[in-house]
Amino acid sequence: MLRKFVQPIDLRLVFIYLAELLGVLGLIFILPLAVSLIFREFEYSILFSVLAVLLFAIGYIGRQFQSSYRKKPVLRDALIVTALIYLVYSLVGGLIFRLFPNCSYINGVFEVMSGLTTTGLTMLVPEYLPKTLIFFRSYTQWLGGLGIIIISLALLFRPGGAPVKLYASEFGEENIIGSVVKTARIVLKIYALLTICGLISFWAAGMGCFDAVIHIMSGISTGGFSAYSDSIGHYKSPVISMTVCLFMLLGAVSFPLYYKVAKRGVRHFFRDMQVRVLFILTALAACLFFLGFGLYFKNLVPALFQSVTSITQTGFNTVDMAGLSDKSKYITILLMIVGGSTCSTTGGIKILRFIVLLSALRWLVWKRALPEEAKISLKVERVEISPNTLSVVMGFVTAYMLILFFSTLALMYLENFNFIDSLFEVASAEGTVGLSVGITRPDMNVLSKILFILNMWLGRLEIIPVLILLSPKTWMKKMRRKSLADER
Fold first, then answer.
1. CA distance 359 to 379
2. Model-level pTM?
Protein backbone atom coordinates (compact mmCIF):
# COMPACT_ATOMS: atom_id res chain seq x y z
CA MET A 1 0.00 0.00 0.00
CA LEU A 2 2.90 2.38 0.70
CA ARG A 3 4.81 1.63 -2.50
CA LYS A 4 2.89 4.20 -4.53
CA PHE A 5 4.18 6.93 -2.19
CA VAL A 6 7.85 6.04 -2.70
CA GLN A 7 9.51 8.82 -4.68
CA PRO A 8 12.56 8.27 -6.88
CA ILE A 9 15.76 10.09 -6.09
CA ASP A 10 16.95 12.93 -8.28
CA LEU A 11 19.93 11.19 -9.85
CA ARG A 12 21.26 14.35 -11.47
CA LEU A 13 21.20 16.24 -8.18
CA VAL A 14 22.83 13.36 -6.28
CA PHE A 15 25.69 13.09 -8.76
CA ILE A 16 26.20 16.88 -8.80
CA TYR A 17 26.70 16.96 -5.03
CA LEU A 18 28.75 13.78 -5.18
CA ALA A 19 31.05 15.42 -7.73
CA GLU A 20 31.43 18.50 -5.53
CA LEU A 21 32.32 16.38 -2.52
CA LEU A 22 34.92 14.54 -4.60
CA GLY A 23 36.43 17.96 -5.19
CA VAL A 24 36.63 18.30 -1.40
CA LEU A 25 38.57 15.04 -1.32
CA GLY A 26 41.10 16.61 -3.70
CA LEU A 27 41.50 19.40 -1.14
CA ILE A 28 41.81 16.85 1.66
CA PHE A 29 44.71 15.11 -0.14
CA ILE A 30 46.89 18.24 0.03
CA LEU A 31 47.96 17.67 3.65
CA PRO A 32 49.11 14.02 3.24
CA LEU A 33 50.82 15.18 0.04
CA ALA A 34 52.80 17.67 2.14
CA VAL A 35 53.65 14.95 4.68
CA SER A 36 54.95 12.67 1.93
CA LEU A 37 57.21 15.48 0.73
CA ILE A 38 58.50 16.13 4.25
CA PHE A 39 59.45 12.47 4.71
CA ARG A 40 60.73 12.23 1.12
CA GLU A 41 58.35 9.41 0.19
CA PHE A 42 57.97 10.72 -3.34
CA GLU A 43 56.03 7.81 -4.82
CA TYR A 44 53.14 8.78 -2.55
CA SER A 45 53.64 12.45 -3.44
CA ILE A 46 53.10 11.64 -7.12
CA LEU A 47 49.99 9.55 -6.44
CA PHE A 48 48.41 12.15 -4.13
CA SER A 49 49.16 14.88 -6.69
CA VAL A 50 47.56 13.00 -9.58
CA LEU A 51 44.48 12.07 -7.56
CA ALA A 52 44.11 15.61 -6.20
CA VAL A 53 44.17 17.13 -9.69
CA LEU A 54 41.64 14.62 -11.03
CA LEU A 55 39.31 15.13 -8.06
CA PHE A 56 39.60 18.92 -8.31
CA ALA A 57 38.54 18.65 -11.95
CA ILE A 58 35.53 16.50 -11.05
CA GLY A 59 34.57 18.94 -8.29
CA TYR A 60 34.86 21.89 -10.67
CA ILE A 61 32.59 20.20 -13.21
CA GLY A 62 30.05 19.42 -10.47
CA ARG A 63 30.14 23.05 -9.36
CA GLN A 64 29.38 24.24 -12.89
CA PHE A 65 26.43 21.90 -13.18
CA GLN A 66 25.08 23.01 -9.81
CA SER A 67 25.00 26.66 -10.89
CA SER A 68 22.63 25.75 -13.70
CA TYR A 69 20.51 23.29 -11.72
CA ARG A 70 18.54 25.14 -9.08
CA LYS A 71 16.63 22.27 -7.52
CA LYS A 72 17.37 21.67 -3.82
CA PRO A 73 17.79 18.18 -2.36
CA VAL A 74 15.21 16.66 -0.05
CA LEU A 75 16.42 14.74 3.01
CA ARG A 76 16.30 11.42 1.13
CA ASP A 77 18.69 12.73 -1.52
CA ALA A 78 21.01 14.07 1.17
CA LEU A 79 21.04 10.72 2.98
CA ILE A 80 21.99 8.96 -0.24
CA VAL A 81 24.77 11.48 -0.96
CA THR A 82 26.12 10.95 2.57
CA ALA A 83 26.08 7.16 2.24
CA LEU A 84 27.67 7.27 -1.20
CA ILE A 85 30.45 9.67 -0.30
CA TYR A 86 31.78 7.41 2.48
CA LEU A 87 31.82 4.50 0.05
CA VAL A 88 33.34 6.46 -2.85
CA TYR A 89 36.02 8.05 -0.62
CA SER A 90 36.96 4.56 0.58
CA LEU A 91 37.16 3.22 -2.97
CA VAL A 92 39.37 6.13 -4.04
CA GLY A 93 41.47 6.10 -0.86
CA GLY A 94 42.08 2.38 -1.27
CA LEU A 95 44.27 3.23 -4.28
CA ILE A 96 46.75 4.93 -1.94
CA PHE A 97 47.52 1.66 -0.17
CA ARG A 98 48.21 -0.20 -3.43
CA LEU A 99 51.71 1.33 -3.37
CA PHE A 100 52.46 -0.52 -0.14
CA PRO A 101 53.94 -3.98 -0.89
CA ASN A 102 51.59 -6.96 -0.54
CA CYS A 103 48.58 -4.77 0.26
CA SER A 104 45.59 -5.79 -1.87
CA TYR A 105 43.02 -3.26 -3.05
CA ILE A 106 40.30 -4.74 -0.79
CA ASN A 107 42.64 -4.32 2.20
CA GLY A 108 43.22 -0.70 1.19
CA VAL A 109 39.48 -0.04 0.91
CA PHE A 110 39.00 -1.74 4.29
CA GLU A 111 41.68 0.49 5.83
CA VAL A 112 40.16 3.73 4.50
CA MET A 113 36.59 2.74 5.43
CA SER A 114 37.87 1.87 8.90
CA GLY A 115 39.45 5.31 9.05
CA LEU A 116 36.56 7.38 7.72
CA THR A 117 34.08 5.57 9.97
CA THR A 118 36.46 6.07 12.94
CA THR A 119 36.55 2.33 13.57
CA GLY A 120 40.24 1.49 13.80
CA LEU A 121 40.20 -2.17 12.76
CA THR A 122 43.24 -2.71 10.58
CA MET A 123 44.69 -5.14 8.05
CA LEU A 124 48.20 -3.72 8.32
CA VAL A 125 51.10 -3.77 10.78
CA PRO A 126 51.76 -0.10 11.62
CA GLU A 127 55.49 -0.58 12.30
CA TYR A 128 56.04 -1.62 8.67
CA LEU A 129 54.14 1.32 7.14
CA PRO A 130 55.81 4.42 5.70
CA LYS A 131 55.21 7.64 7.62
CA THR A 132 52.85 8.94 4.95
CA LEU A 133 50.46 6.00 5.36
CA ILE A 134 50.66 6.14 9.15
CA PHE A 135 49.66 9.80 8.96
CA PHE A 136 47.02 9.18 6.28
CA ARG A 137 45.27 6.49 8.36
CA SER A 138 44.89 8.74 11.41
CA TYR A 139 44.08 11.72 9.19
CA THR A 140 41.11 9.83 7.70
CA GLN A 141 39.87 9.18 11.24
CA TRP A 142 40.19 12.85 12.16
CA LEU A 143 38.15 13.74 9.08
CA GLY A 144 35.65 10.96 9.71
CA GLY A 145 35.17 12.02 13.32
CA LEU A 146 34.24 15.52 12.30
CA GLY A 147 32.26 14.29 9.35
CA ILE A 148 33.03 14.77 5.70
CA ILE A 149 29.74 16.56 5.19
CA ILE A 150 30.40 18.98 8.05
CA ILE A 151 33.79 19.89 6.57
CA SER A 152 32.15 20.51 3.21
CA LEU A 153 29.45 22.69 4.75
CA ALA A 154 32.02 24.68 6.69
CA LEU A 155 34.28 25.29 3.70
CA LEU A 156 32.24 25.32 0.52
CA PHE A 157 28.49 25.53 0.66
CA ARG A 158 26.44 28.69 0.86
CA PRO A 159 23.45 28.97 3.26
CA GLY A 160 20.23 27.51 1.95
CA GLY A 161 18.16 24.37 1.71
CA ALA A 162 20.92 22.00 0.59
CA PRO A 163 23.24 22.56 3.60
CA VAL A 164 20.35 21.95 6.00
CA LYS A 165 19.64 18.54 4.50
CA LEU A 166 23.28 17.50 4.25
CA TYR A 167 23.98 18.64 7.82
CA ALA A 168 20.97 16.73 9.17
CA SER A 169 21.99 13.57 7.32
CA GLU A 170 25.49 13.64 8.86
CA PHE A 171 25.23 15.24 12.29
CA GLY A 172 21.59 15.10 13.38
CA GLU A 173 19.15 17.88 14.17
CA GLU A 174 21.25 19.81 16.71
CA ASN A 175 21.57 23.40 15.45
CA ILE A 176 23.55 25.83 17.57
CA ILE A 177 23.00 29.29 16.16
CA GLY A 178 20.32 29.03 13.47
CA SER A 179 22.47 28.89 10.32
CA VAL A 180 23.59 25.36 9.54
CA VAL A 181 26.73 26.56 7.74
CA LYS A 182 27.69 28.76 10.71
CA THR A 183 26.93 25.87 13.06
CA ALA A 184 29.20 23.58 11.04
CA ARG A 185 31.99 26.15 11.19
CA ILE A 186 31.63 26.48 14.97
CA VAL A 187 31.76 22.69 15.36
CA LEU A 188 34.89 22.68 13.18
CA LYS A 189 36.51 25.33 15.42
CA ILE A 190 35.66 23.37 18.59
CA TYR A 191 37.06 20.20 17.04
CA ALA A 192 40.25 21.96 15.95
CA LEU A 193 40.71 23.55 19.39
CA LEU A 194 40.35 20.19 21.15
CA THR A 195 42.82 18.70 18.67
CA ILE A 196 45.42 21.39 19.39
CA CYS A 197 44.95 21.05 23.17
CA GLY A 198 45.32 17.29 22.88
CA LEU A 199 48.42 17.58 20.73
CA ILE A 200 50.12 19.76 23.34
CA SER A 201 48.96 17.47 26.17
CA PHE A 202 50.18 14.28 24.47
CA TRP A 203 53.56 15.85 23.76
CA ALA A 204 53.84 17.09 27.35
CA ALA A 205 52.90 13.62 28.66
CA GLY A 206 55.88 12.08 26.89
CA MET A 207 54.95 11.27 23.29
CA GLY A 208 57.18 12.36 20.44
CA CYS A 209 55.89 15.08 18.14
CA PHE A 210 54.87 12.77 15.27
CA ASP A 211 53.31 10.24 17.66
CA ALA A 212 51.35 13.02 19.37
CA VAL A 213 49.94 14.16 16.01
CA ILE A 214 48.96 10.62 15.05
CA HIS A 215 47.32 9.74 18.34
CA ILE A 216 45.42 12.98 18.92
CA MET A 217 43.86 12.72 15.44
CA SER A 218 42.80 9.16 16.30
CA GLY A 219 41.92 10.01 19.91
CA ILE A 220 39.67 13.06 19.60
CA SER A 221 37.86 11.37 16.71
CA THR A 222 37.46 8.26 18.90
CA GLY A 223 39.03 6.31 16.04
CA GLY A 224 41.89 4.31 17.52
CA PHE A 225 44.50 3.97 14.77
CA SER A 226 47.97 3.93 16.30
CA ALA A 227 51.55 4.03 15.11
CA TYR A 228 52.16 0.76 17.01
CA SER A 229 50.61 -2.70 17.02
CA ASP A 230 50.27 -2.61 20.82
CA SER A 231 48.64 0.83 20.62
CA ILE A 232 48.92 3.03 23.74
CA GLY A 233 50.29 0.05 25.66
CA HIS A 234 53.50 0.58 23.69
CA TYR A 235 54.43 3.51 25.95
CA LYS A 236 53.93 1.67 29.26
CA SER A 237 53.17 5.06 30.82
CA PRO A 238 50.22 5.67 33.20
CA VAL A 239 50.54 9.42 32.52
CA ILE A 240 50.10 8.94 28.78
CA SER A 241 47.26 6.46 29.34
CA MET A 242 45.32 8.87 31.57
CA THR A 243 45.92 11.79 29.20
CA VAL A 244 44.58 9.73 26.30
CA CYS A 245 41.56 8.75 28.45
CA LEU A 246 40.72 12.42 28.98
CA PHE A 247 40.61 13.21 25.28
CA MET A 248 38.74 10.03 24.41
CA LEU A 249 36.03 11.15 26.85
CA LEU A 250 36.03 14.67 25.40
CA GLY A 251 35.51 13.19 21.93
CA ALA A 252 32.53 11.19 23.20
CA VAL A 253 30.69 14.30 24.47
CA SER A 254 28.13 16.05 22.28
CA PHE A 255 29.98 18.81 20.43
CA PRO A 256 27.16 21.39 20.57
CA LEU A 257 27.45 21.11 24.37
CA TYR A 258 30.90 22.74 24.22
CA TYR A 259 29.39 25.81 22.58
CA LYS A 260 26.71 25.90 25.26
CA VAL A 261 29.36 25.64 28.00
CA ALA A 262 31.40 28.44 26.40
CA LYS A 263 28.36 30.72 26.39
CA ARG A 264 26.70 29.80 29.71
CA GLY A 265 29.43 28.42 31.94
CA VAL A 266 31.12 25.15 32.92
CA ARG A 267 28.27 24.20 35.29
CA HIS A 268 26.16 23.27 32.25
CA PHE A 269 28.63 20.53 31.30
CA PHE A 270 27.68 18.19 34.14
CA ARG A 271 24.04 19.20 33.97
CA ASP A 272 23.88 17.41 30.64
CA MET A 273 22.15 14.08 31.13
CA GLN A 274 24.28 12.21 28.62
CA VAL A 275 27.51 13.40 30.23
CA ARG A 276 26.35 12.19 33.64
CA VAL A 277 25.37 8.78 32.29
CA LEU A 278 28.64 8.55 30.34
CA PHE A 279 30.70 9.09 33.49
CA ILE A 280 28.53 6.75 35.59
CA LEU A 281 28.79 3.91 33.06
CA THR A 282 32.53 4.50 32.72
CA ALA A 283 33.05 4.33 36.49
CA LEU A 284 30.90 1.20 36.92
CA ALA A 285 32.62 -0.61 34.06
CA ALA A 286 36.06 0.40 35.36
CA CYS A 287 35.22 -1.19 38.73
CA LEU A 288 34.13 -4.40 37.00
CA PHE A 289 37.28 -4.51 34.88
CA PHE A 290 39.37 -3.87 38.00
CA LEU A 291 37.75 -6.87 39.66
CA GLY A 292 38.32 -8.95 36.54
CA PHE A 293 41.97 -7.92 36.08
CA GLY A 294 42.77 -8.50 39.76
CA LEU A 295 42.65 -6.19 42.77
CA TYR A 296 46.17 -4.85 42.40
CA PHE A 297 47.11 -1.19 42.18
CA LYS A 298 48.94 -1.75 38.86
CA ASN A 299 45.63 -2.81 37.27
CA LEU A 300 43.78 0.39 38.18
CA VAL A 301 44.85 2.44 35.13
CA PRO A 302 44.39 -0.45 32.63
CA ALA A 303 40.88 -1.06 34.04
CA LEU A 304 39.90 2.59 33.65
CA PHE A 305 41.48 2.75 30.20
CA GLN A 306 39.58 -0.36 29.05
CA SER A 307 36.32 1.17 30.25
CA VAL A 308 36.94 4.50 28.53
CA THR A 309 38.19 3.10 25.23
CA SER A 310 35.18 0.75 25.04
CA ILE A 311 32.34 3.18 25.80
CA THR A 312 33.88 6.02 23.77
CA GLN A 313 34.27 3.58 20.84
CA THR A 314 37.90 4.62 20.40
CA GLY A 315 39.70 1.30 20.20
CA PHE A 316 43.05 2.23 21.72
CA ASN A 317 44.24 -0.51 24.06
CA THR A 318 46.77 -1.17 26.77
CA VAL A 319 45.96 -4.86 27.32
CA ASP A 320 45.74 -7.88 25.01
CA MET A 321 42.10 -8.19 23.87
CA ALA A 322 42.44 -11.87 23.00
CA GLY A 323 43.63 -12.54 26.55
CA LEU A 324 40.58 -11.02 28.22
CA SER A 325 38.32 -13.29 30.23
CA ASP A 326 34.85 -13.97 28.86
CA LYS A 327 33.22 -11.73 31.47
CA SER A 328 35.52 -8.84 30.54
CA LYS A 329 34.71 -9.43 26.86
CA TYR A 330 30.97 -9.29 27.58
CA ILE A 331 31.35 -6.02 29.52
CA THR A 332 33.36 -4.59 26.63
CA ILE A 333 30.71 -5.72 24.14
CA LEU A 334 27.93 -4.02 26.13
CA LEU A 335 29.90 -0.78 26.29
CA MET A 336 30.64 -0.95 22.56
CA ILE A 337 26.94 -1.37 21.82
CA VAL A 338 25.87 1.58 24.01
CA GLY A 339 28.48 4.12 22.81
CA GLY A 340 28.80 7.81 23.68
CA SER A 341 26.63 10.91 23.36
CA THR A 342 24.62 11.91 20.33
CA CYS A 343 26.27 14.55 18.12
CA SER A 344 29.69 13.22 19.16
CA THR A 345 32.29 11.27 17.20
CA THR A 346 31.25 7.91 18.69
CA GLY A 347 29.19 5.08 17.26
CA GLY A 348 26.87 2.53 18.88
CA ILE A 349 23.22 3.09 19.68
CA LYS A 350 24.21 6.23 21.69
CA ILE A 351 23.49 7.08 25.33
CA LEU A 352 20.35 9.10 24.62
CA ARG A 353 18.64 6.16 22.92
CA PHE A 354 19.79 3.93 25.76
CA ILE A 355 18.17 6.31 28.27
CA VAL A 356 14.94 6.43 26.25
CA LEU A 357 14.78 2.62 26.21
CA LEU A 358 15.27 2.38 29.99
CA SER A 359 12.67 5.11 30.54
CA ALA A 360 10.25 3.29 28.26
CA LEU A 361 10.74 0.08 30.26
CA ARG A 362 10.05 1.93 33.51
CA TRP A 363 7.01 3.60 31.93
CA LEU A 364 5.67 0.23 30.77
CA VAL A 365 6.05 -1.29 34.26
CA TRP A 366 4.21 1.62 35.91
CA LYS A 367 1.50 1.57 33.26
CA ARG A 368 0.79 -2.10 33.97
CA ALA A 369 0.98 -1.65 37.75
CA LEU A 370 -1.45 1.29 37.96
CA PRO A 371 -5.17 1.37 37.12
CA GLU A 372 -6.10 1.92 33.47
CA GLU A 373 -7.55 5.37 34.19
CA ALA A 374 -4.16 6.58 35.50
CA LYS A 375 -2.49 8.90 32.99
CA ILE A 376 1.27 8.37 32.78
CA SER A 377 3.40 10.02 30.14
CA LEU A 378 6.85 8.87 29.05
CA LYS A 379 9.37 11.57 30.00
CA VAL A 380 13.15 11.91 29.93
CA GLU A 381 14.54 14.83 31.96
CA ARG A 382 11.05 16.37 32.13
CA VAL A 383 10.77 16.22 28.33
CA GLU A 384 7.85 14.15 27.07
CA ILE A 385 8.75 11.48 24.54
CA SER A 386 6.17 11.19 21.78
CA PRO A 387 5.05 7.78 20.47
CA ASN A 388 6.64 8.64 17.13
CA THR A 389 10.02 9.33 18.74
CA LEU A 390 9.82 6.11 20.74
CA SER A 391 8.95 4.09 17.62
CA VAL A 392 11.93 5.59 15.76
CA VAL A 393 14.28 4.72 18.65
CA MET A 394 12.87 1.20 18.91
CA GLY A 395 13.12 0.73 15.15
CA PHE A 396 16.76 1.81 15.08
CA VAL A 397 17.78 -0.33 18.06
CA THR A 398 15.95 -3.35 16.61
CA ALA A 399 17.70 -2.91 13.25
CA TYR A 400 21.05 -2.42 15.00
CA MET A 401 20.70 -5.59 17.05
CA LEU A 402 19.44 -7.69 14.11
CA ILE A 403 22.43 -6.63 12.00
CA LEU A 404 24.71 -7.43 14.95
CA PHE A 405 23.17 -10.88 15.41
CA PHE A 406 23.14 -12.00 11.77
CA SER A 407 26.61 -10.57 11.11
CA THR A 408 27.91 -12.56 14.09
CA LEU A 409 26.40 -15.75 12.68
CA ALA A 410 27.91 -15.02 9.26
CA LEU A 411 31.35 -14.40 10.78
CA MET A 412 31.18 -17.61 12.79
CA TYR A 413 30.43 -19.50 9.58
CA LEU A 414 33.15 -17.76 7.55
CA GLU A 415 35.98 -17.74 10.10
CA ASN A 416 35.16 -20.65 12.45
CA PHE A 417 35.55 -18.59 15.62
CA ASN A 418 33.40 -19.10 18.72
CA PHE A 419 30.32 -16.99 19.45
CA ILE A 420 31.76 -14.54 21.96
CA ASP A 421 34.84 -13.69 19.87
CA SER A 422 32.71 -13.30 16.72
CA LEU A 423 30.22 -11.12 18.60
CA PHE A 424 33.07 -9.04 20.00
CA GLU A 425 34.56 -8.41 16.55
CA VAL A 426 31.23 -7.58 14.90
CA ALA A 427 30.21 -5.29 17.78
CA SER A 428 33.55 -3.54 17.33
CA ALA A 429 32.99 -3.07 13.59
CA GLU A 430 29.33 -2.01 13.78
CA GLY A 431 30.00 0.23 16.78
CA THR A 432 33.01 1.75 14.93
CA VAL A 433 35.26 0.85 17.86
CA GLY A 434 38.33 -0.97 16.54
CA LEU A 435 39.12 -3.34 19.42
CA SER A 436 39.98 -6.79 18.12
CA VAL A 437 40.46 -10.26 19.55
CA GLY A 438 42.49 -11.29 16.51
CA ILE A 439 39.84 -12.13 13.92
CA THR A 440 40.58 -9.09 11.76
CA ARG A 441 43.75 -9.92 9.83
CA PRO A 442 45.08 -9.72 6.25
CA ASP A 443 44.48 -13.40 5.44
CA MET A 444 40.85 -13.50 6.56
CA ASN A 445 38.13 -14.48 4.09
CA VAL A 446 37.33 -11.80 1.48
CA LEU A 447 33.65 -12.14 2.33
CA SER A 448 34.48 -11.43 5.98
CA LYS A 449 36.30 -8.26 4.92
CA ILE A 450 33.27 -7.15 2.89
CA LEU A 451 31.02 -7.98 5.84
CA PHE A 452 33.12 -5.77 8.13
CA ILE A 453 33.22 -2.95 5.56
CA LEU A 454 29.43 -3.09 5.41
CA ASN A 455 29.13 -3.15 9.20
CA MET A 456 31.45 -0.16 9.61
CA TRP A 457 29.55 1.72 6.90
CA LEU A 458 26.17 0.95 8.47
CA GLY A 459 27.38 1.76 11.98
CA ARG A 460 28.89 5.14 11.11
CA LEU A 461 25.81 6.34 9.21
CA GLU A 462 23.33 4.80 11.67
CA ILE A 463 21.91 2.29 9.21
CA ILE A 464 19.08 4.25 7.54
CA PRO A 465 21.05 6.11 4.82
CA VAL A 466 22.72 2.88 3.68
CA LEU A 467 19.42 0.98 3.64
CA ILE A 468 17.83 3.73 1.56
CA LEU A 469 20.79 3.65 -0.83
CA LEU A 470 20.64 -0.14 -1.18
CA SER A 471 16.87 -0.26 -1.64
CA PRO A 472 15.90 -1.09 -5.27
CA LYS A 473 12.90 1.24 -4.92
CA THR A 474 15.27 4.17 -4.60
CA TRP A 475 16.67 3.59 -8.08
CA MET A 476 13.95 1.74 -10.01
CA LYS A 477 10.81 3.73 -9.26
CA LYS A 478 11.37 6.23 -12.07
CA MET A 479 12.03 3.45 -14.59
CA ARG A 480 8.79 1.70 -13.61
CA ARG A 481 6.82 4.90 -14.01
CA LYS A 482 8.20 5.38 -17.50
CA SER A 483 7.32 1.83 -18.49
CA LEU A 484 3.75 2.28 -17.22
CA ALA A 485 3.46 5.48 -19.21
CA ASP A 486 4.69 3.69 -22.34
CA GLU A 487 2.09 0.94 -21.90
CA ARG A 488 -0.67 3.52 -21.74
1. 7
2. 0.89
Angle at which helix 255-264 crosses helix 180-205, to 10 degrees, equals 90
* Nearest alpha carbon to residue 170 among 82, 232, 244: 82
Distance CA 224, CA 114 (A): 10
- For the segment 115-129, the average pLDDT, to the nearest whole number, is 93
Helices and strands (DSSP H and E) totals, the chain: 22, 2
Domain that holds residue 239: 3-360+375-481+483-487
Three-point CA angle 115, 119, 122, nearest 5°:
70
- Share the mean pLDDT of the chain: 86
Q: Torsion-angle region of residue 445: left (phi > 0), alpha (psi -120 to 50) or beta?
A: beta
Would you say residue 240 lies in a domain?
A: yes
Residue 336 lies in a domain: yes
Domain count, the chain: 1
Residue 368 in domain: no
Q: Is the pLDDT of residue 295 over 50?
A: yes
Q: For residue 480, name the pLDDT band (cuts at 50, 70, 90).
A: very low
Is it the case that residue 210 has pLDDT exceeding 90?
A: yes
| Domain annotation covers residue 367 | no
